[in-house]
From TrEMBL:
This is Uncharacterized protein. It comes from the Eukaryota. Residues 436-468 have a biased composition (Low complexity). Residues 471-482 have a biased composition (Basic residues). Residues 435-482 are annotated as: Disordered.
Length: 482
C-alpha cells in the first residue's frame, strides 16, 4: 500500500512539473526543492496567469498586450515584435516546455520595487537553502542602453524584515543572442519564515529590460548533518585562487603552485592549442576569433593572471581538480568561479559548457552535488559571470571538479578566474575551530572579511597567503523537521 507521505511527495513532483509550487512544508524539503516557478506554458503569446497564481507579489503592473511599458510586466512565451532593440522571437529558459512562459519586465523606478516578493514559511533553522533564478537582458548587443542590474535579498519576515543576506547580479550583458545565466544566493535561516526578493539596482527608462525564469528555492543538499555548536571562525573563505600577477604575458607558475591538478597540458608561449592551457594576464593576440588583449577578472591586480583553456576531449578531463580536507560534515559550503567565453560574438562556434562537481574522498567517489554553467555566451566584449554550487559534505574530505560538457574543437575556448571555496554563511550551527596552513605566496588566499552569499558577478579581493581549513566537528543529524 502506498503511504500518505509517498503520495504527498509524488504530488509535489507533479506540481513542480506544472511550474506552480508554493511552500509545501516538509515534503518539499525532503525532495530538495521547496518551490520551482517555471510560469507554465501555452499557445497564446501572453499568459492570463497572475503573480498570485505563483504565490508571489510585485509592484510592477501586468499588461496583456504586445507592448510592455516602463513599470510593467507580462508572462510571455516569446519576445514580441514591438521593440526593435529586443531579441524578437527569443524563448524562455525552461527545457522541454513547448510554449513556455517567462517573466518579462520593463523595469520601472523605485516605486515599482520589488520586482519579485515571495514569502515562504516552514523553513528549517540552521539548514542551508539556495534561492536562484535564470535572468537575461532582452536588449540586443550594440543598443548601448542601460543594462539591467538586480539584487537578490533574503529577509526574515518575523523579525521586522531584517536583512539576512543579499547579492547583486551586476550589469546583465547585451549579447548577440539572448543568453540566460543563473544567479543564486545561499543562506541559513535563523527563523522559520523569510521573504525572497528581487529588486532592481537601476532605474533608467532607456533599456533596463529583462526576463526572469525558473525561480527556485531548494535545500543545498538532500541530506544535511549539522554541527553541534555555534561556529566562531574568523573568516568564511576556505581558499581563493586568483593566479597571482606579473609583467610577463605567461606565468611560469603551474597548477601545483595553486594546489590543483588538470589533464590539460600547460603552454608557456602563445598560442594555446587544443587540450592545452596557459596562465596569462591577457588573451592572446594570435587568435583572430578571440577577445584579444582582454584582461582577467580579479579587481585591483595589475597584470593579473587567469586560467585560459582551449578545451580538449574526454581524455583531457577534468579541467580542474582540487582535494580539500578537514571540512565540517553537514556545514553548507559554496564552490564557485568566474568564467568567460574568449570567442568574440558572431562566430557561431561551439560554446563552452562546464560542469561543477563535488565528490566525496576522490574523483570517482560518491557524487555529492553537481551543476552546469550552460552555454557560456559569446559577447561583444569578454564578459565574466560567476557560477557556483552549494553543498553539504558527508565526509571531511571532498574533491572539487570542473569538467567540460562539450568536446568540440571549433570554439570551446574559455577563461577561468577567482576560484573559491567558502562557507555559505556565518548563520549556521557548528563549532569548527580554524586550522591554518601556509601556502605559496600570491597563489591562494583567505578572505579577510565576511562576504555575503552567492553572487554571480560580485568580486572578491584578498592579499593574505594562507589557506584556512576546518577540523572535524561534532555533529547531529537534521531531518528537516520544523
Amino acid at each position: 500500500m502506498v503511504s500518505t507521505t509517498d503520495m504527498l511527495e509524488l504530488l509535489v513532483v507533479l506540481l513542480t512539473m506544472t511550474g506552480i509550487v508554493g511552500s509545501v512544508g516538509n515534503a518539499s524539503h525532503k525532495l530538495g526543492t521547496v518551490f520551482l516557478i517555471t510560469f507554465g506554458n501555452g499557445s497564446n503569446l501572453d499568459s492570463n496567469k497572475t503573480p498570485s497564481d505563483f504565490n508571489f507579489t510585485t509592484n510592477h503592473s501586468q499588461q496583456h498586450t504586445d507592448s510592455i511599458e516602463s513599470g510593467n510586466f507580462g508572462f510571455v512565451n516569446k519576445i514580441a515584435k514591438n521593440r526593435s532593440s529586443w531579441h524578437i522571437g527569443a524563448l524562455d529558459h525552461t527545457k522541454d516546455d513547448d510554449g513556455g512562459y517567462m517573466f518579462l519586465v520593463d523595469v520601472g523606478n523605485e516605486s515599482h520595487q520589488p520586482l519579485f516578493n515571495y514569502k515562504v514559511d516552514n523553513l528549517s533553522r540552521g539548514v542551508c537553502y539556495e534561492f536562484s533564478a535564470y535572468i537575461t537582458n532582452v536588449v540586443k548587443s550594440g543598443a548601448k542602453q542601460a543594462k539591467s542590474n538586480v539584487r537578490l535579498e533574503i529577509r526574515e519576515t518575523d523579525k521586522n524584515d531584517t536583512l539576512i543576506t543579499q547579492t547583486s547580479t551586476g550589469d546583465l550583458p547585451e549579447c548577440s543572442n539572448m543568453s540566460w545565466s543563473k544567479y543564486g544566493i545561499s543562506f541559513v535561516p535563523t527563523s522559520t519564515s523569510a521573504a525572497l526578493l528581487v529588486v532592481s539596482n537601476v532605474y533608467e527608462t532607456m533599456g533596463n529590460d529583462l526576463a526572469i525564469d525558473d525561480i527556485e528555492l531548494r535545500v543545498c543538499s538532500d541530506s544535511v548533518d549539522q554541527c553541534a555548536e555555534q561556529d566562531t571562525q574568523e573568516s568564511t573563505s576556505m581558499f581563493l585562487i586568483t593566479f597571482g600577477e606579473g609583467s610577463s604575458t605567461y606565468s611560469n607558475k603551474t597548477p601545483s603552485d595553486f594546489n590543483f591538478t588538470t589533464n590539460h597540458t600547460q603552454n608557456l608561449s602563445t598560442p594555446t592549442e587544443f587540450g592545452h592551457f596557459g596562465l596569462v594576464n591577457k588573451v592572446s593576440g594570435n587568435v583572430g576569433t578571440w577577445h584579444n588583449d582582454s584582461l582577467d577578472h580579479t579587481v585591483n591586480d595589475n597584470g593579473g593572471y587567469m586560467f585560459l583553456v582551449d578545451v580538449g576531449e574526454d581524455i583531457h578531463q577534468p579541467l580542474f581538480s582540487y582535494k580539500i580536507i578537514n571540512l565540517c560534515i553537514g556545514l553548507c559550503y559554496e564552490f564557485s568561479a568566474y568564467f568567460a567565453n574568449v570567442v568574440i560574438a558572431g562566430r557561431k562556434y561551439a560554446k563552452p559548457d562546464v560542469r561543477l562537481e563535488v565528490r566525496a574522498t576522490k574523483e570517482d567517489g560518491n557524487l555529492i552535488a553537481n551543476r552546469s554553467t550552460g552555454d557560456i555566451p559569446e559577447c561583444n566584449n569578454m564578459t565574466w559571470s560567476k557560477h557556483s554550487i552549494s553543498f553539504s559534505p558527508t565526509s571531511s574530505l571532498v574533491v572539487l571538479l570542473m569538467l567540460s560538457n562539450v568536446n568540440q574543437q571549433n570554439g570551446n575556448d574559455l577563461a577561468i578566474d577567482d576560484i573559491e571555496l567558502r562557507v555559505c554563511s556565518r548563520n549556521h550551527s557548528g563549532f569548527c575551530p580554524p586550522k591554518t596552513s601556509t601556502t605559496s605566496a600570491a597563489t591562494v588566499s583567505t578572505a579577510t572579511s565576511s562576504p555575503t552569499s552567492t553572487s554571480t558577478t560580485t568580486t572578491t579581493t584578498s592579499t593574505s597567503s594562507t589557506t584556512t581549513q576546518h577540523s572535524k566537528c561534532r555533529r547531529k543529524r537534521s531531518y528537516f523537521l520544523n
